[in-house]
Amino acid sequence: GEDVEQSLFLSVREGDSSVINCTYTDSSSTYLYWYKQEPGAGLQLLTYIFSNMDMKQDQRLTVLLNKKDKHLSLRIADTQTGDSAIYFCAETFNTNAGKSTFGDGTTLTVKP
Amino acid sequence: KAGVTQTPRYLIKTRGQQVTLSCSPISGHRSVSWYQQTPGQGLQFLFEYFSETQRNKGNFPGRFSGRQFSNSRSEMNVSTLELGDSALYLCASSLGQPSGNTIYFGEGSWLTVV
């Protein structure tokens, strides 16, 4: 079945790296996403990775995918106070385009 | 390119009333999905429309319905509103194809039921 889990909270110091983790249960997922949600706003797509990739880097963001353990992580380098937000991991299946399953979100707090 | 646009952004309704929310997808996107976000339940998938047809449906009661028009714009309707329907309703659009399935969200419509 489909299930995506994330830890609920993460607190880091400004300038440090943040690592947000996510686990999923269905190995047939095709796309894995990271979204950012700031207070009062919708979800902003940060990055995504195809399930046949191990890593994707995009400026300060690095996504690592371990298919064997069904583990996805998002690393934010040089974390800034503006990175404080809720981060959602999501998966979508090739056979079910248009429907994504989301984790409950990780609230990242960046302390100055 | 304009993003996903949702209207209205904020609304207050009374129990028992009905509400219609609107979503304009990114130009060229044929898939529109709707999600409900609440503090207790997180992001829950409502339904997805592709080329005017409901293609996927989540586990919500029949009071929640939707439709999609020929220009891919979508509306969702909630009838006989309950207090528990208070939530942020998010619309998302994508190409809806396996090879181009990146999903983009609108800013959402905040519904408060009193």
Instruction: State the secondary-structure class of chain A.
Output: mainly beta
End-to-end C-alpha gap of chain B: 37 Å
Number of helices of chain A: 0
Beta-strand content bin of chain B: over 45%
Give, in order, the helices and strands of chain A.
EEEEEEEEEEE
Rg measurement of chain B, Å: 13 Å
Give the fraction of residues assigned to helices of chain A.
under 10%
* Overall mean confidence score, pLDDT of chain A: 89
Distance between the termini of chain A: 41 Å
Number of strands of chain B: 11
| Unreliable stretches covering 5 or more consecutive residues of chain B | none
What is the subunit organization of this protein?
heterodimer
Work out the largest interface and the residue count of each chain: A-B, 25 and 27 residues
- Characterize the biggest β-sheet of chain B: 7 strands, mixed
Instruction: Give the ordered list of helices and strands of chain B.
Output: EEEEEEEEEEE
The 3D shape of chain B can be described as globular
Count of DSSP-assigned helices of chain B: 0
Description of the structure:
The complex is a heterodimer of chains A (112) and B (114). Chain A contains no helices and eleven strands. Chain A has strands at 4-6, 9-13, 18-24, 29-37, 43-50, 55-58, 61-66, 71-76, 85-93, 100-102, 106-111. Helices cover 0% and strands 53% of the residues of chain B. In chain B, strand 7 and strand 8 (74-78) form a beta hairpin. In chain B, 39% of the residues are buried. The A-B interface holds A 30-31, 33, 35, 41-45, 48, 88, 90, 92, 94-105 and B 4, 6, 31, 33, 35, 42-43, 45, 48, 50, 55-56, 58, 90, 92, 94, 96-98, 101-108.
Question: Could you give a quick summary of the protein structure above?
Answer:
Chain A is mainly beta and 112 residues long. Chain A has no helices and 11 strands. In chain A, strand 9 (85-93) and strand 10 form a beta hairpin.
